[in-house]
Amino acid sequence: MVRLVLVLGDQLTPDVAALKAGDKARDVVVMAEVMGEGTSVPHHPQKIALILAAMRKFAAGLEADGWRVAYSRLDDAENSQTLSGELLRRASAFGATEVLATKPGEWRVLADLEALPVPVRVLADDRFLCSEAEFATWAEGRKQLRMEWFYREMRRKTGLLMEGDQPVGGQWNFDHDNRKPAKADLLRPKPRDFAPDAVVEGVLGLVEARFSHFGRLRPFRWATDRAGALAALAEFVAERLPRFGEEQDALLEGEAYLSHAVISPYLNLGLLGPLEVCRAVEAAWQAGRVPIAAAEGFIRQVIGWREYVRGIWALTGPEYLVRNALGHSRALPGVYWGGETGMACMKAAVGQTQDLGYAHHIQRLMVTGNFALLAGVDPAKVHEWYLSVYVDAFEWVEAPNTLGMSQFADGGMLGSKPYVSSGAYIDRMSDHCGGCRYLVKEKVGERACPFNLLYWHFLVRHRERFRSNPRMGQMYRVWDGMEAGRREAVLAGAQAVLARLEAGEVV
Ligand code: SF4
Description:
The protein has helices at about 15-20, 35-40, 45-65, 85-95, 105-115, 130-140, 145-160, 200-210, 225-240, 240-245, 265-270, 275-285, 290-315, 345-355, 360-375, 380-390, 395-405, 425-430, 450-460, 465, 475-480, 485-500, and strands at about 5, 30, 70, 100, 120-125, 160-165, 165. By secondary structure, it is mainly α. The protein has a five-stranded parallel β-sheet with strand order 3-2-1-4-5, with helices on both faces. The protein has a two-stranded antiparallel ribbon with strand order 6-7.
């Protein structure tokens, strides 16, 4: 009896559940490059190329390890161009009676698998440190699912940065030492570029010929196998981790990476594991090479935030994807797809996204996310955009980050207040405002920063929901204390910005 062992493009690790449950001697691994997945949303060309190149190399590794692999290339003549089609084609060719799959990180793909007319055994994805069942138990009966409490549980469970049952340094969180504005005049070692080899070049040609999505394909700089991913991790730990904490929220013109790790694509594809990454960071701290604030801040992102959002995704199910607690319905403005803008911060964040398929978390949260939320964009459209344009974006991680943290579409399940700010935050954390058509200090008038105008408009239109929120009451008091004429001018300015967005005009 032959079984098919399905390995998806973000399950590229030899100990993924379906491979562990498979039998090399009789089963056939199925891997498929299909247009159906490449175009499910308009994925960034670099993301498609990264996944396809990494899949090809991983498949070659499995074959070298003795597995029989049925691999469908995108340009194979018989390719049905859907995952279901390829599984059925292989099932018929090999006379397979069952498909072994590891739970996909996208509800749409899971539904497709479950609808197949052959038996499919979906196994839990145990590459995470916290299982779905464990997260559900932790969440049960809690009024608020606060990440900080979950994170402490994960510290205890993994023993990372622990002395017995106490956190090293006597505290769980060192963020008061982190999150400073970046200094423009520092020399920062940039992440290494991995020159495309023959496999990557082959894929780049294919992607160039078949996809015309938003985003530049070249230069392509990503590692596409485990050895490269390990090299990228080692380089981050040695060169950028020491300043990671203090710079993690900063924005600088022309500095796409600052001191960020830029290893999330490798983690999310399966080329790196969360625990090995955290152990490498912990070891650097133990050796005295990095400050505790940097090590703790990084480890929190991985065993805290990353595991937490995956738990939320699994707990809430597909209905989470259509939540829209604030009733926002505006179309996504053209600036998100590279349209002209006078806003220097948006131009930098979107331009960098177009070029690299990468932006760090504050660019995503406090620039593009903040603007979409203030402007009242339909969260489903914002979700589709983030899922499309970032090389590390997979639904299980992207949807809670976008719909929950960034757009407040879940009504406050992830965050106790919406992540909105006026231009003052961007001004404090970046050097964008000096070169902007708008004036960040102006609160009214033609040249007032759109973030300033839309911030108040957002608070006013959602007053009923947020006025009794203890973290927002102060802002309502500031608004109420403003002179009536000024309030009218602010709202009229915001309406004018929204009308221009609506008309597709440049903002
Ligand atoms: Fe962005 Fe406003 Fe600053 Fe311009 S002035 S860069 S729009 S925050």
